[in-house]
Amino acid sequence: MKNSRDKIVVGITVFFVSFMLIINIRNTELDYDFIRLETVEAFNQEISETKQEIETIEDYIEQKKFQIEDYQKALRDGTLEDVLANEVVKQKINSHLVSLKGPGITVVLEDSERELREGEDPNNLVIHDLDVLNILNDLRRAGAEALAINGQRVTSQTQIMCQGATITVNDVTYGQPFIIEAIGNTDTLNAAINAPTAYAYILREYYELPVGSEISDEILINAFDREPALNYIEIQEGD
Fold first, then answer.
1. What pTM, to 2 d.p., does this model score?
2. d(Cα 97, Cα 87) in Å, to the nearest integer?
3. pLDDT tens, residue by residue, 135-162
4. What is the rounded CA–CA span in Å between residue 52 and residue 49?
5. Rg over CA atoms, the chain
6. What is the 3-state secondary structure (H, E, C) of 11-74?
7. Is there a contact between 176 and 127 (Cβ–Cβ < 8 Å)?
8. Which of 2, 34, 108, 227 has the greatest number of C-beta atoms within 10 Å?
């Protein structure tokens, strides 16, 4: 009797454990079913952005290595004043407080004058602040060293807001046309506007918005006409 009872207990135990294993396996499979394509794409985008940040940091480190080498060489050669003078020029450029010139591209954006198609959203025929921002970002990725919109220097603090048929840049409002100027390598800047994957190309070819571009040997971009608003940051002592 005891052996029979033991066999029954063991049998029940084996059945229960097997049942729990099956449930766990099914739950694990269901978990995989809930991974959506959008989630995978979001993870891939996050990985791509992280890689880009790492590359940017690595480039910054390399630049600082070269800068240190320049200082060390200047100390050996007795030309430290020249190195410091060049550094002052770089800082002036980075501060946006001096006018700049160089080869580049001019992009002109306007609302479309074509007839609205039946059922079409009227916004498809209008240039918005988001359109301007996307084109600016394309030009930045293409290596633009300086940017301006309707003569207003674009800085890290520049705000671009859409107000009806106008946009406001650095608290100044402009009507059409909206003119973006960029200084940099003309080939890459031109590709950022006219390549089939470019945002400007999509506006032009799919929405039929007038987006024109012209390469120039010399573009003048004015200095930012006011001191940047720095109300919260301060220099970290010891750096």
1. 0.62
2. 15
3. 999 999 999 999 999 999 998 888 888 8
4. 5
5. 30
6. HHHHHHHHHHHHHHHHHHHHHHHCCCHHHHHHHHHHHHHHHHHHHHHHHHHHHHHHHHHHHHHH
7. yes
8. 108
Please state, in angstroms and rounded to a whole number, the distance separating the CA atoms of residues 161 and 129.
Answer: 6
For residue 105, list its beta bridge partners. 182, 215
Q: How far apart are alpha carbons 126 and 171 in whole angstroms? A: 21
**Backbone φ, ψ for residue 143 (5° rounding):** 95, 20
Contact 186, 107 (CB under 8 A): no
Fold of 99-221: Alpha-Beta Plaits (3.30.70)
Q: What is the pLDDT of residues 2-15, one digit of tens each?
A: 445 455 545 555 55
- Spell out the residues 6+ positions from residue 113 whose beta carbon is closer than 8 angstroms to its own: 210
Task: Look up tokens 């120039």; give the residue.
Answer: 216
Count other C-beta atoms under 10 Å from residue 100's C-beta: 18
